[in-house]
Amino acid sequence: MTAQPTSPQFKQNATRALADAQLQRALGNVRQGFIEKRAAVAAKLPEFEALRDSARDIKNHALEHLDIYLESYEKKVTEAGGHVHWARDAREAREAILAICRKAGAKTVTKGKSMISEEIGLNAALEDASITPVETDLGEYIIQLRNEMPSHIIAPAVHLNATQVESDFRRVHNHLDAARDLSEPVQLLGEARAVLRERFLAADVGITGANFLIAETGTSVIVTNEGNGDLTQILPRVHIVIASIEKVVPTLDDAAQILRVLARSATGQEMSVYTTFSTGPRRPEDADGPDEYHVVILDNGRSSMLGTAFQDMLRCIRCGACMNHCPVYHAVGGHAYGWVYPGPMGAVLTPSLIGVDKAGHLPNASTFCGRCESVCPVRIPLPKLMRHWREREFERHLSPATVRSGLAFWGFFARRPALYRLATRVAMAGLGWLGRDKGKFASLPLAGNWTDYRDFPAPQGGTFQSQWKQRRQGAAK
Amino acid sequence: MSNGLGAREEILRTIRRSLGVNGQERPRVDGARDRLERSPKGLVPERGQLPPAERVALFRAQAEASFATVDEVDTAADVPASVADYLRRNNLPARVRLAPDPRIAAMPWGQTALETSSGRSDGGDLIAVNHAFGGVAETGTLALVSGPDTPTTLNFLPDYAIAVVSAKDIEGAYEQLWDRIRQRYGKGQMPRTVNWVTGPSRSGDIEQTLLLGAHGPRSVHIVVVRD
């Protein structure tokens, strides 16, 4: 698997996704569960909104002092007996990891869930070096068997149904009894647990990501529900952490503040099952733990986002709430976005990391409904940042001719208010009259891309401007 | 360092250039140093600030809401009988792996019918007993540390993980736990691993169905010692 983007084909990807019945059924699991669970757990903590402010402020402070905290962090890791490796780009990160694995004589590497690993295309690099990477998060394991990218940053296999997982397990676990019953999800989980347990015990190196790096103590933090990230790091002789520069926070207390909003925003849990703070290799007297501890710190374009409007995006703690609440994500799923990061956060981050020329479609795939920003635990102004990308795309003449001529057509009217009012009044009245029986249109000329997937509501009453005028007059009286 | 100093220096230089700083500005450096030294607490929710008795009750309620089970005993000497009773209730074999911890070693395991052994786990143990460093009431979270006496493998490899925690070590909020970690290990120092554990292992990766017992323990049982 590589991190080769298909983002330039977003429209084709989306069209295919909308017609994919399996995918649409699986996406039904996203549209409700995550949203209800988050709302319920947020309602149970009166300080939740204030904690979001606190988390935002801590990340802002950390980013404003990033060089200082990275240096403090590095010093503490080294003091604890660990090693820090800096990587400007994906290639340097892959090389650093391969060098450590080769030195350890690694044949098998177990992996905890890491989006950075996807970003740098690590599995393909390991395979090319004849080292077998084994993803151990259940969702990541499933998509590795299918040679797919994750379709969600915290639920990588959310685009699949249990029957698809069953057929993959039957195909790959062919040493097991073909007559076994795998009709229930719990049986699938049990089989994965047994197969992966052997892999955990046999691995030479374990690679995890990091939710946070703590400058105060030189600690890396992972948050999981399965415990796979822990078995990945305590059993092999070597533990490698791969993390990007913006993961650093000042203190243990700062991490605690952010942890209070992370799980609640992500899965709607009060707390994830396992939050693990790792500092250096095992101490000489320790009963267990890895002999070597390495951290690979990746930049890959992030340092250039500082000082720009996109600095806000570096606050992201990868909870997935924005995509869980996004009507576009609900409709097309994560793969349509064509690279590692889907949904609203991907629509902002991907153009920064791979270029707006390749990912310009993504910030356009938004209705600007604002739900993403309203649930973001660190209050990233995602719609505003998507609008920045649209402006840049337009300025650089990257928008397609149809978009530019459409905007020019609209601009002609917008600059002539009397004509604009007349034209919209006539058009709305006409559409309203045509749709007066059903109140909606199942098909409309020139709007097939809309009406193929949902009805177009017939206008009722006057235009927005005339209603606004009436309301203002009503309020004045 | 496999990439030499080039990558490090260039990343730090780009960060400083993007932020419009040279890295030497006193107020800025002092601001960061001050935060590292003072480690300000931030906002601690009200539920994390309860008096001790209510704290244990909240810890218990929150742990049970995360599908852990909890028993309370009066003294450390009551722990072995409580563990034996838990195993009997769940039809589990009377064989446990114990953490080589002096507090656990001092308990009267010989007064039960349990077959015990001591040390880290290599994956062959069904049931293990470890001693927690503490707990956090606000979310019913156990805090366990690595060390010679408290192997981390006991928290993850067995199917049934049992943790003993003293009521006096149950803090209201995470911040108080960090204070105790700093007292024990020194400011800026940590053991190799601190594990926060909130209930048994689980996954929702198949059709968002919550299933317990993913890779870690299928069951987490907590024995709170009141004395």
Automatic annotation (TrEMBL), chain A:
* Signal peptide region: none
Alphabetical list of SUPFAM superfamilies matching this protein: alpha-helical ferredoxin, NagB/RpiA/CoA transferase-like
In this chain the 4Fe-4S ferredoxin-type domain maps to: 307-337
Top-level taxonomic group: Bacteria
Q: Which UniProt keywords apply?
A: 4Fe-4S, Iron, Iron-sulfur, Metal-binding
User: Would the keyword Transmembrane be found if you checked this record's keyword annotation?
Assistant: no
List the protein's name.
LutB/LldF family L-lactate oxidation iron-sulfur protein
Q: Which InterPro entries match?
A: 4Fe4S_Fe-S-bd (IPR017896), 4Fe4S_Fe_S_CS (IPR017900), FTHF_cligase-like_sf (IPR024185), LUD_dom (IPR003741), LutB/LldF (IPR004452), LutB_C (IPR024569), NagB/RpiA_transferase-like (IPR037171)
UniProtKB/TrEMBL annotation, chain B:
Looking at the record, which segments are called Disordered? 22-48
Q: InterPro entries this protein is in?
A: FTHF_cligase-like_sf, LUD_dom, NagB/RpiA_transferase-like
The membrane-spanning stretches of this chain are none
Q: Which residues form the LUD domain?
A: 132-225
Task: List where this protein forms a coiled coil.
Answer: none
Q: Where is the composition biased (Basic and acidic residues)?
A: 25-40
Q: What top-level branch of life does the organism fall under?
A: Bacteria
Q: Name one Pfam family in it.
A: LUD_dom
Q: What is this protein called?
A: Lactate utilization protein
Q: Which organism is it from?
A: Alsobacter ponti
